[in-house]
Specification:
alpha/beta, TIM Barrel, Immunoglobulin-like, binds beta-D-glucopyranose
Length: about 800
């Protein structure tokens, strides 16, 4: 232990005090030993440091910071150098705001397009997400502070996120849901990991020894700190035993006492606590040095804004360009329609929300461009209400234009933390507008603003489609640079766009039932499913157009890697993202038809050719064998494919690989869906075969009294009349607020109340309600109203008294 001497000077109480927050964002200090508190702040695409009122849902304002494009956007750049640069800029701003730990990046897999936080995550592919995440982490940590990769692990939905049990087989867990974390930890060397809210195969992730000890610490050799997601701690002592050092936010010392008791009672050895303290001290001392070196660092707002613009430019994806409608020729008459042109949709809602230093908007930027901008109409109401007047005005304007720029997408209340989307559609009023404008002027270029895949049954009505995703504070300028050709688009999708939601592999089991979500599709998420099961998609993973064209040739495969050539065969400079996919050609162990194992973004002048080399690594041929419980390599022929997307393979060669001769872990006859890849309708028995056990009960037991880990929503079955009434009041308020168009506030009820487990009342109120008081609340909920109330009041008095004594 690095800090043995210092730890020896601490009392048991002092050690325990370091294991949880001092307030919402800071850790505890021990002044007499020179241990300062450190500050943790969101977030993944810009600093959200709250100077005053604190919350984890992005409700109260934070200090202005650069709002970079969100992770879902930058993922489309496939540019790890850019990721590292963004990380450096984020790190610099964090230092300027005295933030020691930046709570990002978020790297959960996009298992299903409806997950409400997909805009905050990179990819449906673990290799891709891991590589970009590692680059962010290197950039952030180059300043001496810490990144915090989150949410570890298998947290792929928002619905009931604080209680849901993710039921997933070990191989899928390793290959799909943990690989990105493995890369972020081993290559990015993150100093902090955030455990997720959910349970994983029955246990809360931060208490899950298999996840936290066996995999994270023992296999990956991680020696940094694990922090709970805010309010995500269940049993504090179990969390500590699993190696979860820091609980956030504060519980006003309540859980520290749990730790002290556990040590005194011998439930946990003091040595375990010491190891956790040691790791926490390393985080404190290593990250605070930077502030001593740079006591009054500021950052260049304009320079950072420019970087945000460059990041957006590299990440925009051109999805359609019929008749080469883009780039727009100079002098052309352009009409701009759509609310998002005036009020940009540039980031998602929730804890990642950034208060931008400045914000570009399309209309202002248009004035500076060499095109004849003839006017703007809002066209539709942002939150979905029909408005005939707006639509008519938009059509009138469209009739006078050569080209219509139509800004459509999803509003901020639809893509938010704490809630999943309920469909992949964009609002009907926008589609009515598109129909009407199309009848008047077919020269439409749609600009999309949203952070996740949507259905596009309307795609035939637009000639150009520019996907800006959520492009940050400088996104408006970046999109127009692509539209005018100042920038040649080079982004490619980091997620597949199916035609319809029903085509997606997890749709039958998303977001699961009351208690659990079964990942029955196994390995087959995203393109792994569409390609293997031969399901057509609108836009495949890795897809994106350019204003130039590229030719691939001359593939050479060795045991170390693959070399090939790319030539820019068009008239303008551009960048191509070449993707390496690997296909195991043996049929013994089921595998997706192809899997991404490398990529390279290459910048080329017209007629220029470059040789590209993509090395193989420890992940190129491996699979996780559940019999040997190890990564193994199958002896087989492997297709080495170089594609311009997952669907469009340009070069291919086969290589024979000598494997590790591990036994085949499966009985093929019992796993037909997995061997065929058609894993969208897996029956329970087959899933259980894969899982190696029975699936747990998925519905609430309505006969049992409610406990700590039951949710407020379960009050509908409570014995206590008051609890049932409270439930109906909450549900009614939610419906009512939605009806009157206050979707943000309605969402808030869902996020912060409806799905909250009772323990959250104690974990998230910073010591206002403690666990004994919660016992009183539960007695009331369970039908003993007066007894519960008396208990609650008695415990409250006791708490206040003990607080007074401490002061
Ligand atoms: C989110 C985390 C975030 C934390 C602090 C939680 O609700 O899940 O991603 O870092 O709040 O704001």
């Amino acid at each position: 232990m690095k800090y043995r001497e210092l730890i020896n000077k601490m009392t048991l109480e002092e050690k325990a005090s370091l294991m949880s927050g001092k307030d919402f964002w800071q850790t505890e200090s021990i002044d007499r030993l020179g241990i300062n508190n450190i500050f943790l702040a969101d977030g993944p695409h810009g600093i959200r440091k709250q100077a005053e009122a604190a919350d984890h849902l992005g409700l109260n304002e934070s200090i202005p910071a650069t709002c970079f494009p969100t992770a879902a956007t930058v993922a489309n750049s496939w540019n790890t150098n850019l990721g590292e640069e963004i990380g450096e800029y984020l790190g610099e701003e964090a230092v300027a705001q005295n933030v020691n730990v930046l709570l990002g990046p978020g790297i959960n897999m996009k298992r299903d397009p409806l997950c409400g936080r997909n805009f905050e995550y990179f990819s449906e592919d673990p290799y891709h997400a891991g590589k970009i995440a590692a680059s962010y982490i290197k950039g952030i940590q180059s300043h001496g502070i810490s990144a915090c990769v989150k949410h570890f692990a298998a947290n792929n939905q928002e619905e009931r996120r604080m209680t849901i049990d993710t039921v997933v087989d070990e191989r899928t867990l390793r290959e799909i849901y943990l690989t990105a974390f493995e890369i972020a930890i081993k290559e990015g060397k993150t100093k902090t990991v955030m455990s997720s809210y959910n349970r994983l195969n029955g246990e809360y992730t931060n208490e899950n020894i298999h996840l936290m000890q066996e995999i994270l610490r023992d296999e990956w050799g991680y020696d940094g700190v694990v922090v709970t997601d805010w309010g995500g701690s269940n049993d504090r002592v179990a969390g500590l035993i699993a190696g979860n050092e820091l609980e956030m936010p504060t519980t006003a010392g309540e859980t520290d006492k749990d730790i002290v008791h556990a040590v005194k009672e011998g439930k946990i050895s003091e040595e375990v606590l010491d190891v956790c303290v040691d790791r926490l001290l390393e985080l404190v001392f290593s990250t605070e040095k930077v502030f001593e070196r740079n006591p009054s660092l500021t950052f260049d707002i304009e320079k950072h804004h420019q970087k945000a613009q460059q990041a957006a430019e590299e990440s925009i994806v051109l999805l359609k360009n019929e008749e080469n409608i883009l780039p727009l020729p100079q002098g052309i008459k352009v009409a701009t329609i759509g609310d998002f042109a005036k009020n940009p949709r540039y980031q998602g809602a929730g804890s990642s929300i950034v208060n931008p230093t400045k914000l570009d908007n399309t209309l202002d930027v248009l004035e500076q461009l060499p095109i004849d901008h003839i006017g703007y109409e809002q066209g539709f109401e942002r939150y979905g209400k029909r408005n005939k007047g707006m639509l008519n005005k938009a059509c009138k304007l469209a009739a006078e234009a050569d080209v219509v720029l139509l800004y459509i997408g999803l509003d901020e209340a639809t893509e938010a933390e704490g809630l999943d989307r309920n469909s992949m559609k964009i609002p009907g009023n926008q589609l009515e507008l598109l129909d009407a404008v199309h009848q008047i002027n077919p020269n439409i270029v749609a600009v999309l603003s949203c952070g996740a895949a949507i259905e596009m049954p309307w795609i035939d009505k637009v000639k150009g489609l520019v996907h800006g995703y959520l492009s940050g504070q400088a996104g408006a300028k970046a999109v127009l640079s692509v539209i005018t050709g100042e920038v040649n688009p080079s982004g490619k999708l980091a997620e597949s766009y199916p035609f319809r939601y029903v085509d997606t592999p997890a749709s039958q089991h998303f977001p699961g039932k009351e208690l659990s979500v079964e990942y029955r599709e196994g390995l087959f998420i995203g393109y792994r499913y569409y390609d293997t099961a031969n399901v057509n998609v609108l836009f495949p993973f890795g897809y994106g157009l350019s204003y130039t064209t590229f030719a691939y040739d001359d593939i050479q495969v060795t045991k170390d890697g693959v070399t090939f050539k790319i030539t820019n065969t068009g008239d303008v400079a551009g960048a191509e993202i070449a993707q390496l996919y690997v296909q195991c050609q043996s049929q013994e162990i089921f595998r997706p038809k192809k899997e991404l194992k490398g990529f390279s973004k290459v910048y080329l002048q017209p007629n220029e050719t470059k040789e590209v080399y993509i090395p193989f690594d420890d992940k190129t041929f491996r699979y996780f064998n559940v019999k040997t419980n190890k990564w193994e390599i199958e002896t087989a022929d492997y297709g080495i494919m170089i594609g311009t997307s997952s669907k469009d393979i340009r070069l291919e060669q086969t290589i024979s690989i000598e494997g590790t001769s591990a036994p085949v872990p499966y009985d093929k006859a019992k796993l037909p869906s997995y061997y065929s890849g058609k894993a969208n309708h897996v029956e329970q028995v087959e899933f259980e075969q894969l899982l190696g056990r029975k699936v747990p009960v998925a519905n609430w037991d309505r006969s049992k009294p409610l406990g700590y880990n039951d949710t407020i929503a379960q009050c509908q079955y409570a014995k206590g009349m008051v609890a049932r009434f409270a439930f109906h009041l909450i549900s009614f308020s939610h419906r009512f607020l939605q009806k009157i168009g206050k979707r943000d506030t309605a969402n808030l009820i869902m996020m912060s109340v409806y799905h909250m487990p009772f323990r959250g009342i104690a974990r998230m109120t910073g010591g206002i309600v403690n666990m004994p008081m919660l016992d009183g609340i539960l007695q009331m909920v369970n039908g003993n109203f007066f007894k519960g109330l008396r208990h609650f009041l008695k415990e409250r008095r006791r708490m206040l008294k003990s607080q007074k004594e401490t002061i």
